[in-house]
Amino acid sequence: MEMKHFIGKALIGFLVLFSIVLSACVGPQMLVAPEDSVSLVQGGPQKGSWESFDVLLNYQYVYQSGTLKLNFGGGAKRGYDQLVIWISFFDTQGKFLQTETVYNSGFREKFLPRSDSHEKIFEIPMESTQFAFHSMLKKRTSRR
C-alpha cells in the first residue's frame, strides 16, 4: 500500500512541476475584449474618441496595410507630473501583438489643448485587426 501512495504522490508532484514549466514556456497571453477595442478599418480617415479616468483623447486615423497614421489631441482630466498614453494592437482573436507610445509628457505637464493635434505614424504587425488605448498618469505632487 505504501508504494501505491508513493507513486501517486510522485505522479501528482510531476504533473504540478510539468504544469509550472509549461506555463512558463507559453507565457501569459494578453487578450482584449471586443468592447474595449476599436476595429481597424482600411483607408480613412476614421474618427473616434477614447476616455479613461485620467484622459480624454480625440483621434483620427488612416490605416493602410502595416501602417497606421494617427492624429490626436485631447486633455488630461486633472493635474499631473507625468502622463503616458499607449496604443496596443491585437489580432482577430484579441491576442496582443504590439504596443507603441502615443504620447509621453516626461516629467512635466504639457498635454495638448483639445484644439491642437499631433501626428504619429506606426509600423504595425500585418495581422493587426484592432487596437486599444491605455494610459498612466502620475498625479501632480505639491511643489514648494
Question: Can you walk through the features of this model?
Answer:
- This protein is of the alpha+beta class.
- The chain folds into two domains: 1-29; 34-139, Immunoglobulin-like.
- It is built from one helix and eight strands; from the N terminus they run αββββββββ.
- Strands 1-8-5-6 form a four-stranded antiparallel beta sheet, with no helix packed on it. A four-stranded antiparallel beta sheet has the order 2-3-4-7, with no helix packed on it.
- A hairpin with a 3-residue loop joins β2 and β3 (55-64).
- It is flat, with a radius of gyration of 22 Å.
- Mean pLDDT is 78; it is low at 21-28.
Query: The CATH topology of the largest domain, please?
Result: Immunoglobulin-like
Number of structural domains: 2
Task: Compute the average pLDDT.
Answer: 78
Q: What's the Cα radius of gyration?
A: 22 Å
Instruction: Give the low-pLDDT segments.
Output: 21-28
> Which strand order do you get reading across the main beta sheet?
1-8-5-6
Indicate the structural class.
Answer: alpha+beta
Q: What count of helical segments does DSSP give?
A: 1
Care to count the β-strands?
A: 8
Q: Outline, from the CA principal axes?
A: flat
Determine the strand fraction and express it as a percent band.
over 45%
CATH top level assignment of the largest domain: Mainly Beta
Helical proportion?
A: 10-25%
CATH architecture of the largest domain: Sandwich
What is the rounded distance between the termini?
A: 75 Å
Major sheet details = 4 strands, antiparallel
